[in-house]
Amino acid sequence: MRVAVLLLAFVAVPACAQPSEQARVPMSTPISAPISTAASVADLQASRMPYVEAGLTEHEAAAHLLNRFAYGPRPGDVEDLVQQGLDAWFGAQLSPGPDPSELTRHLERFPSLSGTPEDLAATYRRNGEILQEARSRGLIGRQVTANSEEGRAIIEQLREERGYRNGAEVIRDLMHYKLARAVYSPYQLQEVLTDFWYNHFNVELLPDVALFVRDFEASAIRPHVTGRFEAMLRATARHPAMLIYLDNALSVAPEGTRTEAPRPRRIPGGLSGVNENYARELMELHTLGVDGGYAQADVEEVARAFTGWTVLPVRRYQAAMVDARGRQQLDRLVNRPGIVRDGFFLYVPHYHDAEPKNILGERFPAGGGIDEGERILGMLAAHPSTARHLARKLAVKFVQDDPDAVLVERLAEVFTATGGDLGAMLWAIVEAPEFWALPSMEGKVKTPMEYVASALRATEAEILRAGPLATALRTMGEAPYRAPAPTGYDEAGEAWINTGSLLARMDFGLRLAQGTINGVRLDLAALNQNREPESAEAALETYARLLLPGRDLDETLARLTPLIARPDFAERVRNAAPEARPDVIDGDRLDEPDRPRRRSSQAMRANDRSGDDTLALVVGVILGSPEFQRQ
Amino acid sequence: MIDRRAFLKSSGLALLASGLGGCPLFLGRTAQASAGPGLFQRRKTLVCLFQRGAMDGLAAVQPLADSQLQRVRPSLTLSAARNAETQLRDLDGTYGLHPALDPLARFFDEQRLAIVHGVGSPVATRSHFDAQDYMETGTPGVRGRSGWLNRAVGLAGHEATPFQAVALTPALPRSLFGPENALSIAKLEDFGLHVRGADLAQTAGQSLEALYEQTTRNLLGEDDALSQAGREGLDAARLLQESDLRNYRPEHGAEYPRTKLGQSLRQIAQLIKLDVGLEVAFAEQGGWDTHVRQGGPNGSFARQARDLAESLAAFWIDLERHHDDVTVMTMTEFGRTVAENGARGTDHGRASAMFVLGNGVAGGQVHGRPLVLDPDALEDGRDLPVTTDFRAVFAGVAGPTLGIADDRTLFPDWTGERMRLVG
Hints:
Chain A is mainly alpha-helical and 631 residues long. Chain A has a 3-stranded antiparallel sheet. In chain A, strands 1-2 form a two-stranded parallel ribbon. In chain B, helix 8 runs antiparallel to helix 9 (225-240) and helix 10 runs parallel beside helix 11.
């Protein structure tokens, strides 16, 4: 029972995964010579991307684009991109359309993903919140706890009566949002950039911002990622997620300071001073950069300018939905003269410091109100330090961990000349020789998110539940939406190239290929149109080229072939009896939805175990290989 | 220096090739028998705990009956009295320990626990990121160098082993980043490859090893970081397979809190007992950024402090047999404002306090210059000034513990003197 015999049932065409060079040339190019010569010269006239000068074929260039500006290629993507043309593809990626209906339908399975923060505030409740509502409505006494019989009963009753869903679902759904969009969206660049800019304006997914995180990404980040930086900066500054995360929602003019409107007699506890957190991160992280030329005095003045930028308390909003008393209280709060309300954003003049200010050398006269903050955002967005800071971050993200100073300067000039047009900066990157040079081509290692998403795309895996994937990402050090500091996750490889994280990646690759990651289904044979390779060796070559298109795989194949082609390999596969299977490793159960559990390995065909195991091993090793870690 | 992989292979642990994934138990036993004591030369272990977010040193170790402090911190100041649950524990007539840190008090009494007050960085940044970065690299004001603990591993100069430096964190902390071997493990039990069938596991392991032997990619001709990290990961996974990690029982009734820090310390204790050559261990605890409602005997500060004290106490009790070989040091990026803010919390400040625990430690004392809290004595009129450079503490602890003499390499550009903390 040799592997080859088992696999003979299928047409064995080991070369089928590597169409001839001619076949890979775009249909529109009327030549039959090797593509590195005539085709590329023809392309050179059309393309804004200097990949030919770097000695790359169009296929290699397409693969490089997909590795950096998408979450990696799916089988066939490189050929499709070449067909479309590099410039045309990039241009289309920079003008994303609305989500395709399949993605929308997929995400609709997760109810919290289609709601506004208002909807979520109305629908999602943790038990403690329900208990509080019951107390304030006088349904139970103050002493009743969630664990008591009475407490449990009232929680259940209110969930039923008012249709409250479990607050933990919001977090579970977000994991799905992140992974499904990264893997399935046709507007890959939009997702890569959304991840990048979310990380730039990082808000950690903590309980007090959970209702706002998806909206923060969807309304403050994603619409602006190929547009103007200033628009994104302004959107983040007003977003409740940011105002809460960096404590600006609590920042009010100190007592004794003149305010824009008379202070009320009673001020809620915790609201009697300036909080500098947002002001500092706004300059250090969001705009100027730590060496961007501001002083502690600027931080203090900017913080005063943003006093009164706050958030309508979610609890107040929820109380208003429960009864007339709550509605009256909310009306009283938001109908005060001078209040600016935009969704949950509130500008409260009686908390705003009305004294004159001096910020980055500019004078702000007394009584500037909400316009002071807006003026500061404009100043910061147009500042040359911001141009340099963002240029460097983009160069690190897309070119190399230690980018050339000349490239950074060039990108900064584009930022300044275009008024902060982020799309123009991205064009400048692909037009830069540095992007196509060796240090860029070989110099970046995938972050865990890039690794996981690219492995799922390369294997055309189907995500049924994202919880286990989020757990795997956490093990690798990049739990989605959970970067524990305003700085976000590191982009440079040094943060991710460590023994533990790499071993976790190898393990992920092997488990993914074996079908032992819960909630993920894949069909490795279908990747090769169900044409099974005639030997383990052929499987290795075929799948390596499917999973890593456009790469030089000589060394990878040379090193693996002797091990895979060993005569005792088939026996080893046969010895891997089904009872030796480890239990499927579960993800974080809190993150799981309550749909029936299903061992994804069942989705693999029941017969033909040895062939499957061979393929799984080969694919798992390729996904764990150093070449697959490179971006 | 002996190549660590050659070292492993010569140790007999290479027998465990099939231990990747479904490890046959008999192989584990064989290896244990051959691996007995002496496989690694006996070494001391330095355990570093990073309190991220900036611990309020004035809340942890408070000057007793300081009227100035009581005035500017009305909701945070505690008094010293008999009730250890809610009031300060008088340490030396000058300072009191926060009640949530009470599990550490007995170590102070036993003169194993030293406190250093007024510690911080000469660079007055109040950014978490910068301050952590500078503290972890040990080069205030300069970016992008190696981590100070990574340099410490190199300066200790012992033959390299996979578990020489381990961070119980999902990603390697900056402190350990650099040319020397360092490993980050979020959870010991899950460290390894999960492949069905021992034979296939072996093939998978061998295949990945063959791939990570590639060293040709680095343009500068250096050993490629990716390849090196991959090989070390595979070696380390093999080594851990020999021990029954899941059924670990702490000794002497030690009970670790089920917190991230508690579990990290529990695993560090396991590694120390496994005698795999651990010299530098790193764990971290977040949540010290108490801008809002910091609290007195209860509240957000107390919660963090209790976790720290209970975790550390359990660790020390569990490791009784190893007390002579283990030193623990806490660190935090900066302190917090002397006055509380409008939200009954504290903002980013300057100096904080650090704890050092070990048998050789000059314990039972609060080291450092006496704190002066008059408004005139404060930095920028608001913060406790730094009177001890954190590098004096780090060198004073790591130097004697790891046998390092060269402070100028450990902390480039530093010309200060070590604090005498470990004898």
